[in-house]
Amino acid sequence: MKIACLFAGQGAQYPGMGRDLYEKYEESRRVFDAAGEKIRSLCFEGSAEELRMTENTQPCVYTVTMAAYEAFLAEFEKNKKPDAEITAMAGFSLGEYAALTAAGVITDIGTGVELMECRGRYMGEAGRNEAGENIGTMAAAIGDPQKVRECVEKAREDGILVAANINAPTQTVVSGDVDAVARFAETAKEARLRVTPLSVGSAFHSPMMEPASEKMRSLILTKEIRPTDFPVYSNLTAGPISEYRKGDGAGVSDSQTEASSRAPQTAEDIADAMALQLMSPVQWVKTVENLKAAGVDTVIEFGPGRTLCGLVKKIDKGIQTYHVENAETLEEVLAALCEK
Length: 340
Prior knowledge:
The protein is of the alpha/beta class and 340 residues long. The chain has two domains: 2-127 and 209-337, Malonyl-Coenzyme A Acyl Carrier Protein, domain 2; 136-200, Alpha-Beta Plaits (2-Layer Sandwich). The chain has 15 helices and nine strands. The strands form two sheets. It has a five-stranded parallel β-sheet, sandwiched between helices. A hairpin with a 2-residue loop joins strand 4 and strand 5 (171-177). It is globular and about 60 Å long. The two termini are 17 Å apart. Mean pLDDT is 93; it is low at 251-257.
């Protein structure tokens, strides 16, 4: 059993998330304590409105995700079945920071929380005009991805509009300025695509995020970042982030053979990949396909909700899915994967 740990993005957060993990598991308490009183209070007592604010959403989801993962890992490592092995990790958007923390690239929870707080703030700032109004938005399109791309090209005109999240074979999220996304909705309707507006603060994973991208690159370079050979699959390339070198740009990563002959990866390479991730499409379909090609037959999603499990099933029904977001689901997964 080859397991990939998947780490949730934003969207499924809810008031009170993580409280029972904190109350029941020492490893989870350590994560929340390292995150600090502000984050703990927002997770346990914050309102739905407070948790929808990007600068709050990102560090809170990150903290709950890591609390769930650390509690799971402690029991799994002691009692796992002989054939069960964690062989890869991946996270969706902000979840990639949790994946990098779990793999030891980001060295501690406090650093991860700071990066998440700044990322959320930078992204919010990049998506507002001088009057503080949101100038970007996103919408989910259901249907033929080629038709989605054609509608994006037709509706863009002189605005910002991209296919931002390639979530599933028939689910693509588009991102851009408000007017361009409205034009896309009309064009897509004519093409018989189903379009649902998303309640988000801006045009994430689009060129609108370039100012946030530059700020994140600079911030990450001030932190201790440790390259690793453990396969953490990148949203940017859909391959292990260890294969990325600054200047590669977006697209599917180099093969393992090519990567092995290149210079050792540096912290600057990782900072570049994580910065570009903010303004580039999330290659989720290719990521799951590449995990399957690497032998992964089981995934565990950590964090609020089970969005990633649903997307994995749409991409490949043969992959076994589990999710851990609270004490109940943690015990269920441990019962399935560990010796009695």
